[in-house]
Structures are given as C-alpha cells and as structure tokens.
C-alpha cells in the first residue's frame, strides 16, 4: 500500500535512511479508536465543508481557511484529488476549487478515494454526535455502513452515555403529565441507566462508552452528588421538557457527574473502556475545565475501569501524559489534532505524548466525522507526524529503528486491539 499524495521532498533522505520505519509508518494497518459517522449521500451538503478544518462555528468558521493547518490540508487534498491550486494565492479560491471537485464526484466514489489507500483497518464509531431525536442521526450513515470503507476490519460502536441517559429520561418523563415529579423518578432513572448500559455491553459490536461531560459541565467530576442536588437537576430538566415540547439536554453538574460515575462503574464490571472528550473542542466547553488533570480523583475512584483520554487533551497534552504514566488504567489517544493543528503543533503533540506516556498506552484516532476527507487527513497527517518524530529519536540514538517501528505498530494498531478487545 502507498499513500495517494506526494510526500514533502525533505522526507526523502529520512525515508532512505530508515526504510523500515518509513514503510511501517506509512503503510501499517490502523485501528481508528475514535471517530463519528459520515453524512449520507443525500445530506452531503447540509453542513459547511469548512467544518473539516476547525471546531469554530458561525462567522468564526470563515477564518478557518486562513490557518497554517488549513493551507497544508488544501495542498494535501489537491494532491489526493489530482487537481491544481496553482495560479492563485487566494485561500477562498483554493477551497472553492476543492469543493467544486468533490461536489462533481459521486458520493461513493468520493468515499472510496479518501479511504482506498489510507490503511484504516477498523473504525470505532461514536454515533451519538449530534444528539438524539431531531439531531444528525437521520442525516448520517449507520455505523455498520462504514464496513464498506475498511478491509478487512469490521466497524464497532462506542456508546455516548449522555445521549443514552437523555433518552431514558425522555421515556420516563413521557409517563407524567403534570408537575411536580415524584421522588421515585431518581432511583427509577438510576436503575434503568445501569440496566441499559449493562445490556449494551453484551452486544458484540459495542466495545466502549464515551462521555462528553467535558462539554456539558467540565471534567472536575465530583465523586458524589447529594440527593437534593440530583432531584433539583431532574426538576430543572422536567420543567424544560414540560414547557418546550420534550426537549432534554443533560447539562446539570450533579446529574451529569452521576451519569459518568454510573457509566464508569458498569464499564469496570463489564471490562470495557470509557472514552472522555478532553481539551480541543467547540465553544460549548470551558477551556480551563477541559484538562484531564481535573479527573485525577475520579481515576483513583475507579481503578478497574480503563479510561481513554481523547484528543491528546490539546492543549493539555502533558497533563494527559502524566496521568497515563502514573495510572495503570489510563490510556492516551492522540487524535483530532489532525488536521486542526499545524504540522509543527502536531509534531509537538506527538513529542509531548512520548515525554512520559508508556508507548503501550498510546492510541491513534482520526476523530473523522461527516466528511470522508476528515478520515483521510486524520490518518495521512498522523502517519507523517509519527515518522518524522520517531526518525528524529532514532537519529539521536534514543531509539533504535526496530524500537521505533514497534512504537508505530502499537500506536496505530496493537494498543487499540488490546484495549478494546478486538
């Protein structure tokens, strides 16, 4: 297998010097341990394509094409599609050319081009992005559809626990027609959530849970919530549900923290990992509360539960690396920085991950979502970043080439296969 795009010229001497490392980094099969569904063909244009480049929203997204990382991504996609960006220095024009080319491709062909030589073996899909009813689910492909993009792997599912909790609450609330809620709702909800999550873990395609508590109320997750605080949160949710035609969004700290603790307990008993969004995200997060350092007491409370810190916790990568180094049950994903962060930033992230993190606890992901190009850029840039950082360590004689090859194999495939029981 070879990558579709032309490699930067400065890679040639390193490739000649370390051919085994080069070939492994660029061709070894990869397990994408955290991604999201692609849009259906009928919905391929419902979201602005610039979302490929940034978590920004609204008018702020218009500036995304002017980042260094976006300029690099434009060159890589032009190479992928075989189109020229010569003759223009205007960033808007470059992206219009790319969008025009992809729009002219039949959707299955677009997906094929992006995945054909990416070397993604298996995808673990969090299909809760976009929420429950009325969200993006009707506009995206089911997780098993993505089997057509990988060979010979089989797509697996990651369950977003907040979405499941919201659906349980929606069903409970539907049986009441007036206020106030009876006190029995809280134990009913907790029991149903435990039973539901436990049942889900028995499904052969479900290999992990995920929490987005970072977005909702922050990673400073309490170790206990008072019954009064939990009932107050349920009452607040009920009032919104009752007044706003069934709307439910779990964003009350006591209840959110309780959902996380329940999920960690079930996951520990059933032997599956729990992923946590950390760091890099849209404006829903409060950045100071997105560092996984806040999770240290929680990690200690659930030592039997494997915890996967997502997105290299950017910009708190060193915090995440410390946790993965000192706690047996913590693992570190280094996704989403591809393609959101510049190449220099990506190399810095990989280097910071390697400062402390045991290399048997490092997992790659694309955080691919909506557009097939997000998967391609996620794997292509990660492969280049790994090769460049590890070849430098070999040059400095901190690693042998064989050791560096093993690091690549573990980060791309072996560690995820072990952590998720694939």
Describe this structure in words.
This protein is an alpha/beta fold. The chain has one domain: Alpha-Beta Barrel (TIM Barrel), CATH 3.20.20. It is 47% helix and 9% strand. Strands 1-2-3-4-5-6-7-8 form an 8-stranded parallel beta sheet. β5, α11 and β6 form a beta-alpha-beta unit. The longest helix has 24 residues. The radius of gyration is 22 Å and the shape is globular. GO terms for molecular function: hydrolase activity.
In short:
With 422 residues, the protein is of the alpha/beta class. It has helices at residues 11-17, 19-27, 68-81, 91-104, 107-115, 161-173, 185-201, 213-216, 227-243, 253-270, 296-301, 317-326, 337-340, 343-356, 372-395, 401-419, and strands at residues 30-35, 120-126, 156-160, 206-211, 274-276, 307-309, 330-333, 362-363.
Q: In terms of per-residue confidence, which ranges show pLDDT below 50 for 5 or more consecutive residues?
A: none
Backbone shape? globular
Helix content: 40-55%
| Mean pLDDT metric | 93
- What count of domains describes the coordinates? 1
CATH-defined topology: TIM Barrel
CATH superfamily: Metal-dependent hydrolases
Tally of helical segments: 16
The CATH class assignment is: Alpha Beta
β-strand amount: 5-15%
- Can you summarize the main beta sheet? 8 strands, parallel
Q: Decide which structural class fits the backbone.
A: alpha/beta
Number of strands: 8
What is the N-to-C order of secondary-structure elements (H for helix, E for strand)?
HHEHHHEEHHEHHHEHEHEHHEHH
Radius of gyration: 22 Å
Straight-line N-to-C gap: 23 Å
Largest sheet strand order = 1-2-3-4-5-6-7-8
CATH-level-2 architecture: Alpha-Beta Barrel
Pfam families: Amidohydro_2
Domain Amidohydrolase-related: 263-422
InterPro entries: Amidohydro-rel, Metal_Hydrolase
GO molecular function, one term: hydrolase activity
């Amino acid at each position: 297998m070879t990558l579709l795009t032309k490699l930067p010229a400065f890679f040639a001497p390193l490739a000649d010097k370390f051919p085994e490392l080069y070939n492994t980094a660029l061709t070894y099969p990869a397990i994408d341990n955290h991604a999201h569904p692609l849009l259906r063909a009928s919905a391929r244009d419902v979201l602005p394509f610039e979302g490929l480049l940034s978590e920004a929203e609204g008018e702020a997204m218009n500036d995304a094409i002017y980042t260094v990382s976006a300029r690099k991504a434009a060159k890589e996609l032009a190479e992928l599609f075989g189109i020229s960006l010569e003759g223009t220095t205007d960033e808007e024009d470059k992206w219009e050319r790319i969008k025009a080319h992809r729009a002219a491709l039949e959707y299955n062909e677009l997906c094929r081009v992006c995945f054909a030589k990416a070397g993604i073996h298996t995808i673990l899909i969090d299909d809760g992005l976009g929420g429950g009813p009325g969200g993006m689910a009707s506009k995206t492909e089911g997780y098993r559809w993505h089997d057509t993009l990988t060979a010979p792997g089989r797509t697996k599912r990651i369950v977003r626990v907040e979405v499941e909790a919201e659906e349980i609450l929606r069903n409970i609330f539907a049986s009441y027609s007036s206020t106030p809620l009876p006190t029995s709702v809280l134990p009913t909800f907790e029991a149903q959530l435990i039973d539901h999550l436990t049942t889900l873990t028995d499904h052969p395609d479900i290999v992990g849970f995920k929490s987005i508590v970072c977005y909702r109320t922050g990673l400073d997750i309490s170790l206990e919530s008072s019954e009064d605080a939990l009932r107050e949160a349920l009452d607040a949710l009920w009032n919104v549900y009752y007044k706003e035609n069934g709307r439910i969004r779990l964003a009350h700290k006591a209840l959110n923290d309780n959902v996380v603790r329940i999920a960690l307990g079930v996951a520990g008993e059933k032997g599956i990992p729990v992923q946590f969004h950390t760091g890099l995200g849209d404006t829903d997060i409060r950045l100071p509360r997105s560092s996984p350092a806040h999770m240290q007491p929680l990690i200690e409370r659930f030592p039997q539960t494997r915890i996967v810190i997502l997105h290299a916790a950017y910009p708190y990568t060193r915090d995440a690396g410390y946790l993965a180094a000192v706690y047996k049950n913590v693992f570190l994903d280094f996704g989403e920085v591809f393609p959101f962060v510049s190449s220099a930033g990506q190399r810095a992230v990989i280097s910071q991950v390697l400062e402390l993190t045991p290399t048997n606890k490092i997992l790659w992901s694309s955080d691919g979502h909506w557009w097939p190009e997000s998967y391609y850029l996620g794997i292509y840039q990660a492969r280049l970043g790994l090769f460049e950082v590890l070849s430098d360590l070999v040059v400095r004689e901190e690693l042998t080439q064989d050791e560096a090859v093993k690091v690549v194999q573990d980060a791309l495939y072996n560690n995820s296969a072990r952590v998720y029981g694939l």
